[in-house]
Amino acid sequence: MSNLSHDLRAALAEHFVVPLLAPALVTRSSDGTRKLLFELDGFPSPVTTSGNGGGLGRGFARAAIESVLIPDPPRLTLCISSQAGCGMGCTFCATARLGLLRNLSAEEIAGQVVAAQEQIEPGEHIGNIDFMGMGEPLVNYDAVVQAIEIMTAEWGLGFSPRRITVSTVGIVPAMQRLVADTAVNLAVSLSGTTEAQRAKLVPINRRYSLQALVAMCRALPIPQRRRITFEYVLLAGVNDSLEDAGRLVRLLHGIRSKVNLIPFNPFPGARYACPSETTIRCFQERLLAAGTHATIRQSRGRDIQAACGQLALASGRTPSHRSQSDTLDGNLGRQRVESSRPTE
Ligand code: SAH
Fold this sequence. Notes:
Strand content: 15-25%
Helix content: 25-40%
Number of helices: 9
Number of strands: 14
Order of helices and strands: HEEEEEEEHEHEHEHHEHEHEHE
Shape: globular
Bound molecules: S-adenosyl-L-homocysteine
């Protein structure tokens, strides 16, 4: 900050405080994955609170979120949240059960990266940042784009946009805006191959149909050497048949894409199961045989409920059972570190 005059710096220090996000709890998985829990201040939110989070009254919203640091040698991938809870209601996702508590600000989104950087050990560095934590980034569009600006700017965190991936449930008009406004990678959570099947799993399909979603992906001006990632959560007996794999191939025909198959990560009370390893492999092979690029996502941090779709504040400190003072005091400085015993 030496490009600012001494007087201006003194005035800024006197009148402004820049609060840094600090995790209240860091949990370590047996596989090296770390989950960071942040308790955010309640403050006026444009989103009406609903579901089991409730409001604090006087226009304040309660919020707690999680980020996940995943070893991806030789780097770490950081998975960040864009909302507290989520309003999309995907039936296979634990976060959906919280409902939408509130949108995060750009500072809260980018702040997760700064806080994670403080957790890493000598020799480690964050290589990729994925918007695959809690929330639907494209319904919190302005804050997400502003956070991307902070993360990529030279005056900010200096990450290449190629290292950042925004994952969406398929908010079709916002996908077009994102590709025009930023240079980040796009991932689309498909998880179904017919309108009826997808609508049961991903209710937003009733507003933005599979057909409209795929047509938009086909029309997006994606740079030559990039591909759209299609995430496909594999649910036993629901969307894991070879017919599904065949329909997926046909849907994605002509789109520069790669499919990321995500075996379902269980959570208490879930009504789905993860397919067998053989079924998962057969599904992948059907895609590969048709020339569709397809990988299977290794599940990381399952034992600490840090894997895809498991983020629901499983530490027990859910917004619904925290007191107001707990919420308002909880943000800065305090930190507990827990390690886990594997459960499987
Ligand atoms: N709202 C965004 C990003 C958050 S979810 C989106 O829908 O893309 C990140 C990824 O986790 C999505 O691909 C989602 O389909 C997947 N997911 C959600 N619940 C899951 C679960 N229980 N098991 C495996 N993947 C899950």
